[in-house]
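Quick one, probably user error.
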């Protein structure tokens, strides 16, 4: 089977899979994308096909995650939290379907603007790649402090950089003694599923369980479905007004350069900047939503492409989270040999475009035509416990593949510590990933390890 055909097939798989996952409220991007991307890599998919799969996953997940957010008022994932106030406003006005259409149309525009802009900018930054590679350890250490400060925990996150680095290297030494090789995937998975796994631990704790127990089922009021276009594939440019198209395009263009900043932070910032310039409750909310969802796409795409194409090392919150397997997935990829080294600029352009186009063709009309029916089906018949169980099973298989029982123990040890640090103290997953990458250099400087 040709590489092109494999890439198209995996893009279809990624588009379908993450279109469905996006409809599940609260489905964290890192916890869902990392295991499936690792699975594709470890199954032996060509590097270009892995990239197509991932790009299709990004665009489809960030289109369908708008459905539960707009229709039910519950965030599809963490990126949707800044949009909740505006979706609530439009639900009170009785037009949640308008909110949904504006959001996903803005997402399409943001994705297809960010992709070429990020590629061009990455080519420019690639001229400085030797400098970044020569000082990788220092860069990771400094970046871990910066990202820790901008996480929810701020000062406590900074205070825990060295202890968490010691924890990582301690586990690494123990696993090396047992397996005579260093683990990597098991650590990635542990940090990725940490927040989700911490919820399970809290639910099992007799002292902490009271904080999550509910006396009655939660009720959601779902708006009726109203279709105002003919055919199956509506034109996103006709959904948005002229000013909304300009604001969304401009915001996507600007955020295609800000690859070192938090995607959630940039989403909130650009939404507030645009919203402050618009009068009228309805117009302000619809415009802000189209801009913010466009930025969720542009930041995720740019923060994947720029460090991957320019440096080959994870220097963005996205690269340290959902996109981490593209940089390091032993024994297939490592920081010294990953997609950056195995793909040309034309490969990134062609196979990235394949992933984006296939994902958009699958997710966009699906959300526009069937989002309400799909959301009702998932809420009624698919429990979140079943979804969590599926992810835990996939994580166990991948961790066992790398390190047998030791790999599984490392994964869930990291998930327990990292997850509780995230949930209770606000030490975000991005900060934990960056500390992981810099832990060897940090410990060598602190205690000579």
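Nope, works fine. Designed sequence:
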């Amino acid at each position: 089977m040709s590489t092109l055909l494999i890439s198209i097939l995996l893009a279809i798989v990624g588009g379908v899979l993450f279109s469905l996952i996006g409809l599940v409220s609260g489905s964290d991007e890192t916890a869902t994308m990392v295991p499936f991307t690792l699975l594709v890599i470890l199954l032996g998919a060509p590097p270009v096909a892995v990239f197509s799969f991932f790009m299709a996953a990004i665009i489809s997940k960030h289109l369908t995650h708008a459905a539960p957010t707009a229709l039910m008022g519950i965030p599809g994932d963490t990126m949707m939290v800044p949009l909740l106030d505006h979706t609530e406003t439009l639900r009170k006005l009785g037009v949640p379907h308008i909110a949904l259409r504006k959001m996903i149309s803005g997402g399409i525009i943001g994705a297809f603007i960010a992709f070429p802009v990020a590629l061009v900018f990455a080519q420019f930054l690639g001229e400085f790649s030797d400098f970044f590679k020569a000082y990788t350890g220092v860069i990771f250490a400094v970046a871990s402090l910066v990202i820790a400060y901008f996480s929810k925990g701020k000062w406590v996150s900074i205070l825990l950089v060295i202890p968490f680095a010691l924890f990582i290297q301690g586990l690494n030494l123990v696993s090396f003694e047992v397996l005579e090789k260093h683990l990597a995937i098991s650590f990635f998975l542990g940090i990725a599923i940490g927040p989700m796994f911490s919820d399970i631990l809290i639910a099992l704790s007799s002292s902490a369980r009271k904080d999550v127990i509910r006396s009655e089922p939660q009720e959601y009021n779902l708006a009726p479905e109203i279709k105002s276009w003919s055919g199956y594939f509506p034109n996103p440019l006709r959904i948005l007004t002229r000013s909304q198209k300009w604001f969304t395009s401009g915001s996507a263009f600007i955020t295609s350069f800000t690859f070192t900043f938090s995607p959630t932070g940039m989403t909130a910032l650009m939404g507030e900047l645009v919203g402050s310039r618009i009068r009228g409750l309805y117009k302000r909310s619809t415009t802000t939503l189209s801009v913010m969802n466009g930025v969720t796409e542009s930041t995720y795409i740019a923060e994947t492409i720029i460090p991957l194409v320019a440096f080959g090392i994870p220097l963005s919150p996205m690269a340290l989270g959902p996109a981490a397997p593209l940089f390091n997935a032993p024994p297939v990829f490592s920081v010294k040999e990953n997609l950056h080294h195995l793909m040309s600029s034309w490969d990134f352009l062609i196979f990235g475009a394949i992933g984006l186009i296939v994902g958009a063709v699958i997710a966009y009309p699906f959300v526009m035509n069937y989002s309400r029916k799909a959301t009702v089906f998932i809420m009624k018949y698919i429990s979140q416990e079943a979804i969590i169980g599926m992810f835990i099973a996939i994580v166990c298989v991948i961790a066992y593949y790398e390190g047998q029982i030791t790999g599984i123990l490392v994964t869930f040890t990291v998930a327990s510590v990292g997850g509780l640090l995230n949930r209770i103290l606000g030490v975000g997953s991005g900060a934990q990933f960056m500390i992981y990458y810099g832990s060897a250099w940090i410990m060598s400087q602190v205690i000579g390890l």
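Residues 3-212+233-446 form one domain.
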